[in-house]
Design goal:
The structure holds two protein chains of two kinds. By secondary structure, chain A is of the alpha+beta class. Helices cover about 25% and strands about 35% of the residues of chain A. In chain A, strands 1, 4, 5, 6 and 7 form a five-stranded mixed β-sheet that branches. The longest helix of chain A has 24 residues. Chain A is elongated. Chain B is built from seven helices and eight strands; from the N terminus they run ααβαβββαβααβββα. In chain B, a hairpin with a 3-residue loop joins strand 2 and strand 3. The longest helix of chain B is centred in the C-terminal third of the chain and has 24 residues. Chain B is elongated, with a radius of gyration of 25 Å. The chains are: A alpha+beta, B alpha+beta. Chains A and B meet through helix 2, strand 2, helix 3, strand 4 and strand 5 of A and helix 1, helix 2, strand 1, helix 3 and strand 3 of B. Strand 11 of chain A pairs parallel with strand 8 of chain B.
């Protein structure tokens, strides 16, 4: 990993003798207890344009997931007729998200490597909108650590975990590989049947009857969550995702899902802990 | 007390010597060539595509392992049901009434459970724990969203079609398991009751008085009793002895102040070990002081997806 393209300001801070740690005191104590020496706060950020593209479905940047034909047969002769519906994934946004996240991550590791660190712990994802909704800053901050007594550092690993949780991860025979994340946004271009059911309209033909499942909306809510999981799984290789955090926003026509977690690899098997003893605490 | 770190250099070498890091990007980029290609269905489900995803903490993973179970995957199911026409309208009194909404709402829950069960089966899970249940009732539709962790006995292979669902936490599942009980599924009950008109005499006699509004009390009774009755019936249909960790949700309907909506759910359980085992908890006194912690993420201002 090259450190030559680090911004001058970052290089100056990292070259200084002192160090800083974005850890709570208890996490800092646990870090020392594990034989890890904090080498400094490291961060990576990347500001990206965040355009959904043209709101004409089928335009660049969208991928069709499922198709919901008009049950009346009105759209049979013209597949682009508005009465037919489809669920679309804003795949270009997923690409931008992945590109921004990967750039922020590799820049953070670059800073860690410049300090000779073996890994980055307690990573915080502070990704947010800047200025307006069309500009998004991908921002990862963590604490670089040097493993005392270990040989020269290779490519640094990273994890959202720190403190006691990290100690327990090691005890469980797992080591962190990297933080991981994925993004998925699903848009609903409603079919006439979905429109009627969602907004309580009256179908004069009697074909669409209210009271049943709105399949297109059910599929969209399920797809957003499953796709984000599949996308993240595609990056795992032979690793597993630990401590996954799924956040979903929106309902109805747009569902946005973000999944984050730490990619971990098992390095040795462990015996199960003894069966837990229930306790009642007196305070 | 030793001042040596808990992890010796040998231990560190053991942990990290075999580990490879830096293999690939942490977030998957999308293949641009696929943007316009329609897919035949929803998300692909291939176990060979990568490792497991688990939303359990390390404590929960270890606790689950200690009772012989392991997490398999994060599984989801969601469903939206259309409600009958005019179900929350005043004009429905004497027609089908607002309780006609409870049928589609219950079927939305059943459909979400079926989608989650399919997800669990294809992941190779035997059941789902920690199901987060989100329900919402709108004027024309009712929504149910379920997210949970598929689990299976350590080393077991393949799912089976009768995978169970439970909203119990890992800790509660471990305690239930230790006592000889098993979760069978999510029991669900909902009911909607219309607050009846007051007679003109009641309106005048109650004006400005702090007296019981019997029409509301009675509507609440009707909705709650009916909803809880349906919860118990759904558990009995599963062959359960009862329902634990029941959550009661009493939300006003902002678009229909004359309707009382009531929803409840919980985990249906049955005694599968033949005999109940008393857990006999040990009484402990904690010697630990309260530790002040602060949340760095909030200080920096990370946001939620938009």
């Amino acid at each position: 990993m090259s450190t030559t393209d680090l911004p001058e300001a970052a290089g100056r801070r990292l070259a200084a003798a002192g160090w800083s740690a974005a850890l709570s005191v208890s996490d800092f104590a646990a870090c020392l207890q594990m034989g890890m020496r904090p080498a400094g706060i490291v961060q990576g950020f990347c500001v990206m344009g965040w355009q959904r593209g043209l709101y004409t479905y089928g335009g660049y940047g969208y991928r069709q997931l499922d198709y919901y034909p008009c049950p009346h047969g009105w759209g049979v002769h013209d597949p682009n007729e508005q009465v037919n519906g489809a669920n679309w994934e804003a795949a270009a946004l997923a690409d931008v998200w992945a590109a921004g996240y990967n750039a922020a991550h590799s820049r953070m590791l670059e800073e860690a490597a410049a300090r000779g660190a073996h890994g980055v712990i307690g990573v915080i994802d502070a990704t947010k909108s800047l200025i307006d909704e069309h500009v998004r800053e991908f921002h990862l901050v963590g604490t670089a650590v040097v493993l005392e007594g270990a040989g020269p550092a290779g490519p640094p690993w990273s994890t959202y975990l720190a403190g006691a949780k990290l100690v327990k991860l090691f005890e469980a025979g797992l080591v962190p590989v990297s933080v991981a994340g994925a993004y998925c946004q699903v848009h609903v271009l409603a079919s006439c049947a979905t429109e009627i059911l969602e907004h309580g309209r009256w179908d004069a033909t009697g074909v669409v009857r209210r009271g049943g499942e709105v399949v297109q909306l059910s599929d969209a809510a399920t797809q957003a969550r499953r796709l984000v999981r599949e996308r993240l799984r595609a990056t795992l290789g032979d690793c597993s995702l630990h401590g996954a955090d799924l956040q979903v926003a929106g309902r109805g026509s747009t569902h946005t899902a973000v999944l984050r977690g730490t990619k971990v690899r098992r390095v040795h098997d462990v015996d199960p802990l003894p069966a837990p003893v229930p306790t009642v605490r007196l305070s | 007390m030793s001042d040596q770190p808990a992890m010796s250099p040998e231990r560190i070498a053991e942990l990290f010597g075999a580990a490879r890091t830096g293999d690939g990007d942490p977030a998957g980029a999308f293949d641009a060539g696929r943007h316009h290609r329609p897919s035949s269905g929803g998300a692909p489900r291939s176990r060979s595509a990568g490792g497991a995803t688990s939303d359990l903490s390390i404590d929960e993973t270890l606790l689950l392992h200690s009772i012989g179970w392991e997490p398999v995957d994060l599984v989801v199911g969601a469903s939206v049901a259309s409600l009958p026409a005019q179900v929350f309208s005043w004009t429905t009194s004497g027609w089908n009434g607002p309780d006609a909404a409870s049928g589609p709402f219950t079927s939305a829950m059943a459909s979400a459970v079926a989608r989650m069960r399919n997800d669990c089966n294809s992941a190779g899970g035997h059941g789902v724990i920690g199901v987060e249940v989100e329900v919402a009732v709108h004027q024309h539709v009712a929504e149910v969203t379920l997210v949970g962790t598929a689990v299976r006995p350590v080393g077991a292979s393949g799912g089976h079609s009768g995978a169970w669902m439970s909203d119990l936490s890992t800790r509660d599942f471990a305690l239930l398991h230790g006592a000889g009980w098993s979760p069978l599924g999510l029991a669900f009950g909902t009911a909607f009751a219309q607050v009846p008109y007051r007679k003109i005499g009641q309106v005048f006699s109650q004006a400005g008085q702090n007296v019981e509004l019997e029409n509301y009390t009675n509507a609440l009774y009707e909705a709650r009793e009916l909803g809880m009755g349906r919860l118990q019936e759904s558990a009995q249909r599963m062959g359960a002895a009862g329902v634990v960790a029941v959550q009661l949700v009493d939300r006003p309907l902002p678009f229909a102040s004359h309707v009382v909506g009531f929803t409840c759910w919980g985990t249906a359980v049955a005694l599968t070990a033949g005999v109940h085992t008393n857990l006999r908890p040990r009484v402990v006194v904690s010697m630990r002081d309260r530790v002040d912690r602060f949340d760095v993420a909030r200080g920096i201002g990370g946001d939620r997806p938009s």
